[in-house]
User: Fold this.
Amino acid sequence: WPILAQAVEEVPAIVDWAVAHFDVRANVAIGGVSMGGDIAVAAAGIDRRIDRVAAVLATPDWLRPGSIEPQGTADEVQWGLYRRFDPLTNAGHYSHCPEMLFVCGGEDRQVPPEGAGAFADLLGDMYAKRHRRLAIAREGGIAHRFTPWMWAEAMAWFEAGLAADLGPSR
Assistant:
């Protein structure tokens, strides 16, 4: 959790830098694979400029119940980081409803896709009221392995968001 938390805390500074040095709009898209996806989801909870997330082989549940990888033990400082940043236990961080896609391996036991489902269930009403999307795509028969299909799903998610931001062409 310390590594995740430190990376999450760094994201707003990265967004600040990108806005200052590139032609970046106010609404930011972010994505990542595995731990990078976990970071992207948590960062969207602390930086309201993040409007769209694609999290591949990732989970909003830092406890990862059902994982074949044991979590180990945490001290009080580490539990504090968990309580501060874990997306599943901080639903209020997502009241701005950043659109999120979780791309999961249907047979992933390292980062079980059930965490994404629990998150979608938790936030479903809030997202529906704001007409925002929180989606899950699963590739059947795939464990914790990044595939071309997953890449295509994430890129299509970002392209759809860009097209929506630009509006209809004239």
